[in-house]
Amino acid sequence: MLIKVATPVAGSATELDSRRLAAESGKLARGERLPRIVTQRHRIDELDAASLLEGLVATPAHSNPKFFYDAQGCALFDAICQLDEYYPTRTEAGIFTRYRVEIARQIPRAAQWVDLGAGDGAKARDWLGVVHARRYVGVDIADAWLRPAVSRITEAHPGVEAMGVVADLTRPLALHALLHEAADSPAVFFYPGSSIGNFTPQRALELLRAIRSHCDPRGRLLIGVDLVKDHAVLEAAYDDALGVTAAFNLNLLRVANRLLGADFDTRAFEHFARFNADESRIEMHLRARRDQRVHFSRPSPATRDYRAGETIFTESSYKYTRERFATLLAEAGFNGHQFWTDGDARFGVFLASPSAT
Ligand code: AVI
After folding, report:
1. Average pLDDT, integer, range 12-30
2. Is residue 25 over pLDDT 60?
3. How far, in Å, from the CA of 81 to the mean position of ligand 1?
4. Of the four listed, 13, 41, 104, 203, which is most buried by Cβ atoms within 10 Å?
5. Cα atoms in the 13 Å half-sphere on the side-chain side of 291
6. What is the pLDDT of residues 52-95, one digit of tens each?
7. pLDDT, position 131
8. From ligand 1's centre to the CA of 197, what distance in Å?
9. Mean pLDDT across the stretch 117-124?
């Protein structure tokens, strides 16, 4: 999941078709193709702000990783993906490059390619031609990313009907109506980057079940999963020498200052990451360097005293064994799967199907 957070706006989920609105307001030039963007969830709302506040004032303090991804957070995450220590991105890319044709052979033709946490759509672009997709459905919380992503897909693959859905993957997945528009084309869900690891196993199971509920027997899930490995390698990936991951983590405090009218001093906290072997997850925390009082003005006034050494638990990144993730897939109703990995078994790619393959 790469969930990105845009500017806060109060409001509930809406269904808007940007092409219709643009056409109605006269902004659509003759012959110009604006991307079709369906908005199920528009930016951060009061519920999100309330849940962020609730977590930050709770004991122990915590926050959902989705709050990392404002514009600054997205840029920092992109930088993380280039780091020597952060192996998942390049390892997954290597597996995809090496086995793309083999994987594509197992994927039904003329499918609806559903790109979860689409971001800039770059990973999906490499697949659409090879699998002969009919439709591209990019799903992401950041409409600012989705529009150019969908336009680029259309440019690169003019024969593919491309559209975007602005949705928050921490909320129930509801793509049935959209996919039903092309009911003769099976859905192939694409969820790379081990974003599934940012959900607890229970929430991951719920999301996998929701994906399964969108698949007919021809449907597939192509998903990237980071694997359990040497603890030092894992911890270095989340605590790099350049301090990029530290900046990414600390940026959460800037997001809180903006969303909640808070007065966090980013210099008063430090990044801390460790592998919790019992839970099989990397945990990221922000640790208070000194005793301090923080004020919040939105959505309701609050104060919280943080003691020196106390932490805010900001992210879990679960690491799976091949067997453990296969069990999760089976529990979600994917009875068959195939698996690919790299030479060091650092990262796994699963192609799951509703029935045994
Ligand atoms: C987006 N997600 C899969 C990343 C991960 O590895 O859990 C987020 C991240 N956090 C710190 N570094 C990268």
Report:
1. 44
2. no
3. 9
4. 41
5. 0
6. 999 999 999 999 999 998 889 989 999 999 999 999 999 999 99
7. 98
8. 8
9. 93
Kind plus residue range of the DSSP H or E element containing 102:
helix 87-105
Question: What Cα–Cα distance (Å) separates residue 300 from each residue in 51, 151, 205, 276, 334?
Answer: 11, 40, 33, 34, 43
Question: Using CA positions, which residue lies closest to atom 2 of ligand 1?
Answer: 195
With a cut of 50, say whether residue 6 has pLDDT above it.
no
Q: Residue 23: pLDDT above 50?
A: no
* Atom of ligand 1 at shortest range from CA of 2: 1
Q: Give 243 Cα–ligand 1 centroid separation in angstroms.
A: 14
Q: Domains (ranges, CATH) in the chain?
A: 1-357 (3.40.50.150)
The residues, any chain, with a CB within 8 Å of residue 354's CB and separated by 6 or more, are 212, 215, 216, 217, 219, 333, 334, 335, 336
The pTM assigned to this predicted structure is 0.91
Q: Measured in whole angstroms, how far is the alpha carbon of residue 70 from the centre of its chain?
A: 13
Cβ < 6 Å from ligand 1: which residues? Answer: 2, 80, 88, 193-195, 197-198, 238, 245, 248, 315, 317
Looking at the predicted structure, is the pLDDT value of residue 14 above 50? no
Continuous H helices in 114-200: 122-131, 143-156, 176-180
For residue 142, give Cα distances in angstroms to 97, 125, 201, 349. Answer: 27, 18, 25, 25
Close Cβ partners of 234 (under 8 Å, ≥ 6 residues apart): 275, 282, 319
Mean pLDDT of 27-32: 49
Tokens 């808070």, located at residue: 262
Q: How confident is the model at residue 4 (pLDDT cuts 50, 70, 90)?
A: very low
Place of tokens 């404002």: 70
Amino acid residing at 310: E
